[in-house]
Amino acid sequence: MDEHTTKANVRIHWPGLRLPVTVLLDDPAPCRNPAWYEFPEQGNVAVVPNSFTEEFADLVDRTGAAGKFSVVPCPGAQGRIDEGMPGISDEEMAGFLRLVRERIAPRWDISPEMLTHNKALDLATMQPLPEREDVWAARQDERILTPYIARWSRTASPRPGPSGRRWKRSTRGRSRPRCARSAACAWAGTSCTWTPTRRSCRPA
């Protein structure tokens, strides 16, 4: 354990007598292995059951671990996690998002990992572009990248973590539809406003 002693003979310890460590956990995708989308020829395991994410949440509870947990908003460019994904039931998706929101987000910052962690998306058509996101992004400027990254940052972040801004929760409008398109809504279980004209959901 590192200790520091000042000139006044005051000894300083790390919090909890443990060295603080921040964990950066990249690329989780709901119920699927991102490598399965990215490298289909390698025979990677496809399914990551919610029980695996639950075991991770148990580890967080036991150890007090904290850091950054990223959620891919449009895994493999196959669809959006707030509208449902091919091969993933609404129940599975809602279960994953509930685990992230209720068990992980209280101690971890939740952030997107670009949009697909695979092929870049044409935002006008929602179709994959020929290039990978990292290759495509390296040639773009702020004017292009800002709306691209911001497009579904809320989708990937069911609720900002402890160091991020939290949306105001409200009981206002409980009788209104709350992103009723799918049980997989990233805001399911929180109070939000459904805007049919914009086909979007936003926190209240």
Fold and architecture overview:
- With 204 residues, the protein is α/β, with parallel strands linked by helices.
- The chain has one domain (22-167).
- Helices cover 25% and strands 17% of the residues.
- The chain has 6 helices and 9 strands; from the N terminus they run βββααβαβββαααββ.
- The strands form 4 sheets. A 3-stranded parallel β-sheet has the order 3-4-5. The protein has a two-stranded antiparallel ribbon with strand order 1-2. Strands 6-7 form a two-stranded antiparallel sheet.
- A hairpin with a 4-residue loop joins strand 6 (119-122) and strand 7.
- It is globular.
- The protein starts with a strand and ends with a strand.
- 27% of the residues are buried.
- The model is unreliable at 156-204 (pLDDT under 50).
Helix content: 25-40%
Q: Could you give the order of strands across the largest sheet?
A: 3-4-5
Kindly report the average pLDDT value. Answer: 76
**Rg, please?**
19 Å
Cα shape: globular
Please supply descriptive tags for the structure shown above.
204 residues, alpha/beta, three-stranded parallel beta sheet, two-stranded antiparallel sheet, 6 helices, 17% strand
Draw up the topology in text:
Layout (H helix, E strand, L loop, with lengths): L3 E2 L5 E2 L10 E3 L8 H5 L11 H14 L3 E5 L18 H15 L3 E5 L6 E4 L4 E6 H5 L4 H9 L2 H4 L35 E4 L4 E4 L1
Parallel strand pairs: 3-4, 4-5
Antiparallel strand pairs: 1-2, 6-7, 8-9
Helix pairs in contact: 2-3
